[in-house]
From TrEMBL:
The chain crosses the membrane at residues 21-45, 57-77, 84-103, 115-135, 142-161, 173-192, 204-223, 229-252, 272-297, 303-325, 337-356, 362-388, 409-427, 439-460. GO terms for cellular component: plasma membrane. This is DHA2 family efflux MFS transporter permease subunit. It comes from Oceanobacillus bengalensis. GO terms for molecular function: transmembrane transporter activity. It comes from the Bacteria. It is found in: Cell membrane.
Length: 471
């Protein structure tokens, strides 16, 4: 499937609209797929006769493989053509979706998730790289805003859609629903996608791939397993130690290689480093609420999966609408004030969610979450775009790979940490109120994490705008 020996097409002659449709469709199914399964896990457990510790691997394995693939993507972008790599990624994703849909047992279902994750891990950084290359710097904010719309909308409709489907249809419907969209995207991409990335044919360094896999995989596994096994368990501690040692070795090796798999020198650009850290904090805030709020609403307030999913929907719609708007505002005014206002909103609304009780209304939760997601829309994509704009063209693919890798790590932290805090801070002998206390403590910790992000925003400078004015 992967093509070689093809030169990039002239960027000026490329019709960008159909390419954007192909890329956004691929992103939509990849991200939607990641969030659909949460509500369906109890049904899968019952159907396949497995326990909670086993079924959680459907989520953890996806995150692990996704996180392992992303750092390698910058190497793959240099090795293969845009078109060939995208078609390969979507084919892997489609094969995995089919395997998951027809899986007669857990092993085959897990294999399907691994294939899906391998495809999605290549797709996300590849898409961002293509968009940064085909659009001029003064339009990138708007384009990344459109991309952010998908990133926001897909995971937010996931719980509501999944809740409705598993209440009325078999859980396999979730995969059968995604499969035709993925196949249509492959067919359309085959005819209209152009080669825009430059093939540099970097040499493959096997040791770097092994170190990357053990490093990022170890850390991601540690955070994923901590939620169920506990932070003090042997498997979590060993995972963190192995991950930290091999990741340090990987980074030092990349700095000494002439052709590194992941160009860590992107962190020499201060704005990229700051905005990557800010993106991680924002993503932790977003993922944490998406995990904790449905558990609180279903297990402590007695809402159905569908209703708890609907509580997240206003925030999804608001974030989806605002992402293109904040993209345009970024192109006009830069990232500094957008991120300051956005993180301020996240801090305020996260503290608002740390005073939940057994009497808290659906309206209060939905409203607080909606304004929280407005803050995420104002902060995350403008920060990411501002950081990537600082990089030279030849480092953009490495920048997107680094950015996505660290975001994946923050996603694992944002999933595991709030649940661990919620369960350890809970007071079971006090009944429902004692359980809600654990939820409130997890939001207090999330709020202080957001405060760190707010402090980072004051160090952001809009250098990109001054360059445009000079030019």
């Amino acid at each position: 499937m992967v093509e070689q020996n093809s030169t990039p097409d002239s960027l000026e002659k490329i019709n960008k609209v159909p390419i954007m449709i192909v890329l956004i469709s691929g992103a939509f199914v990849a991200i939607l797929n990641q969030t659909l399964l949460g509500t369906a896990l109890p049904h899968i457990m019952k159907d396949l006769h497995i326990d909670e510790n086993t079924v959680q691997w459907l989520q953890s394995a996806f995150m692990l493989v996704n996180g392992i693939m992303i750092p390698i993507t910058a190497f793959l972008i240099g090795r293969f053509t845009t078109r060939g790599l995208f078609l390969t990624a979507m084919t892997l994703f489609s094969v995995g979706t089919l395997l998951a849909a027809i899986a007669p047992n857990f092993s085959m279902l897990l294999s399907g998730r691994v294939f899906q994750a391998a495809g999605a891990g290549i797709m996300m950084p590849l898409m961002q790289t293509i968009m940064m290359l085909i659009f001029p710097i003064e339009k990138r904010g708007t384009v990344m805003g459109m991309f952010g719309l998908v990133i926001a909308f897909a995971p937010a409709i996931g719980p509501s859609l999944s809740g409705y489907i598993v209440e009325h249809f078999p859980w396999r419907t979730l995969f059968y629903m995604i499969l035709p969209i993925a196949i249509i995207d492959i067919i359309v991409a085959y005819f209209i996608l152009k080669n825009v990335t430059k093939q540099t044919f970097p040499k493959i360094d096997i040791l770097s791939i092994i170190l990357s896999t053990l490093g990022f995989g170890g850390l991601l596994y540690g955070f994923s397993a901590a939620g169920s096994a506990g932070w003090g368990s042997a498997q979590v501690i060993i995972s963190f130690i192995v991950g930290a040692i091999t990741l340090t070795w990987f980074i030092l090796r990349q700095l000494n290689l002439k052709e590194p798999i992941l160009e860590m020198r992107v962190f020499k650009y201060k704005m990229f480093t700051l905005t990557t850290a800010l993106g991680m904090v924002t993503f932790i805030a977003m993922i944490g609420a998406a995990v904790v709020l449905p558990l609180y609403m279903q297990n402590m307030l007695g809402f159905s999966p569908l209703v708890s999913g609907l509580a997240l929907l206003p925030g999804a719609i608001l974030q989806g609408i605002m992402n293109p708007v904040t993209g345009r505002l970024f192109d006009k005014y830069g990232a500094r004030w957008l991120t300051i206002i956005g993180l301020s909103l996240i801090v305020i609304t996260t503290f608002m969610l740390s005073f939940l009780t057994s009497e808290t209304s659906f309206t209060y939760i939905a409203t607080a979450h909606a304004f929280r997601m407005l803050g995420v829309a104002m902060a995350m994509m403008p920060a990411t775009t501002a950081g990537l704009n600082e990089l030279p063209r030849d480092l953009i693919s490495h920048g997107t790979a680094v950015n996505n890798t660290f975001r994946q790590v923050s996603g694992a932290i944002g999933t595991a940490l709030p649940i661990t805090i919620m369960t350890t801070a809970a007071i079971p002998e006090e009944g429902v109120d004692g359980m809600i206390h654990g939820v409130n403590v997890s939001f207090v910790v999330a709020a202080f994490t957001a405060v760190i992000g707010l402090i980072i925003t004051f160090f952001i400078k809009d250098r990109q705008r001054r360059k445009i004015k000079v030019g």
